[in-house]
Amino acid sequence: MMINARRAAVLALHWQVNVIRPEGFFGGLMAESVARSGVVERAVRLHDAALAAGVPLVFVRFTVPVDEGGLVRNTAFMHAVADAQEVFRPDAPGSQVIPEMAGQAEAGRVFDNQKLSGLAGVDLADWLADQGVDTLFLTGVATNLVVEQTARQATDLGFATHVVRDCVAAASQATHNASLANLELVTAGCLTSAEVLSRLR
């Protein structure tokens, strides 16, 4: 099935130093598996192709402003980032989009929030609707956290949502696979980056 590129967007979730680089806050958990998977290189290619096709590319960063914004300490994850919130300030080194994608972020759009879903606590869903977008392709880290949470919310909001299975990664392959299995059931289906590019053409 072909997809109208004018009605699609790519959401690039949590491609931040804090999440996937060894020096980042979650580096000890994520950096090795992300590097081993090769997911960054594949996502860079997909993002470039999306931009070339005129598909909106939207980066979502997890940041914590000085007033804490919409941060709510209602999970262990949120308690952890609240305790270390200085490293998640919008201008902190760890909050920045990784160098491989910095130019793509400048060419696209960047939304910041303090939620696990990339669509929560921010007007991104409204912005997408205003652009006429009804189909979303998700890339990012981690598969079982921001990617799955965003995919579920996007689906409930009415978007046809596809996780790009070779452009997402988790702390372990087993966790990644289990999350993708869940997402096959609750979204419009997971696709490879090659399948996405084929459909967009």
UniProtKB/TrEMBL annotation:
Cited InterPro entries: Isochorismatase-like_dom, Isochorismatase-like_hydrls, Isochorismatase-like_sf
Domain of life: Bacteria
Domain Isochorismatase-like: 9-195
Keyword Hydrolase among UniProt keywords: yes
SUPFAM superfamilies: Isochorismatase-like hydrolases (SSF52499)
Entry keyword set: Hydrolase
Pfam family, one: Isochorismatase
Protein name per UniProt: Nicotinamidase-related amidase
Organism: Streptoalloteichus tenebrarius (strain ATCC 17920 / DSM 40477 / JCM 4838 / CBS 697.72 / NBRC 16177 / NCIMB 11028 / NRRL B-12390 / A12253. 1 / ISP 5477)
